[in-house]
Amino acid sequence: MDLGIAGRRALVSAASKGLGRGCAGALAAAGVDLVICARGTDALERTAAELAERHGVSVTPVVADITRAEDRARVLAAAEGADILVTNAGGPPPGLWSDWTREDFLRALDANMLTPIALMQALLPGMIARGWGRVVNITSASVRAPIDVLGLSNTARTGLTGFVAGTARQVAGSGVTINNLLPGMHATDRAVALDQGAAHAQGIGVDEAKKARAATIPAGRYGTAEEFGATCAFLCSVHAGYIVGQNILIDGGSTNLTV
Ligand code: NAP
Asked: Which among 15, 70, 165, 230 is least surrounded, fewest beta carbons within 10 Å?
């Protein structure tokens, strides 16, 4: 399917690895020029070079911590005029509801709520003025069903979800859509870290922890960054203009819901 977005420009934050990279790769395959960022230089430059070479698009890497205002300003300067925004950042650490301090909550709110909101506030006016735009926020299945050890994620991401629910309906009339993608378990570094935590807590090996977790997923496996990215690229396509303010689970059926 021709996604109809070749030649457009996108900003994908936190995109040197994992789900962000999956989204950047699928957009590049659709002919979209990219600005991508991450804190570490090596993986970011490698990803930018690989995507540019494989897909013949322009990929600008910006070394930046997207949760810091001054870094974000540099990323936004490189991405001026972008019609597509995919927001992403690292997830908060696991723990227990009783452990977290005010500072822990503020860090999680900064990374997983206020940063995507700031990126939208910066790029939405231009999209509205041009009459076309797409925003996809990478959130989490924890928005639909809380994950015990990820209370910081449960909290910050539902705040973002509330912002998107209201804002998506205010900008839809200008040809701009905002939607959220909710990953369940995907085979990325983040999943390895979570499996290591589970293995440590249960006194078992990491492979055993991964196998046990995969067995709880109806699809019987972890998702891939590539299939996640393909859904993101579809939401950014010309075909998805009537999908507004939705929260789309990509979790292999893990979240046990009727609707
Ligand atoms: P990942 O494999 O650890 O990759 C994270 C990417 O984001 C890396 O490129 C990392 O590069 C970059 N990054 C992290 N923090 C950043 C920051 N502050 N500024 C700029 N770049 C940053 O993670 P993932 O699995 O793709 O997860 C992406 C998001 O989805 C996370 O918020 C995660 O909590 C959420 N999620 C993931 C899963 C899953 O199963 N994988 C499930 C539910 C939710 P640098 O480290 O070099 O900055």
From this structure: 70
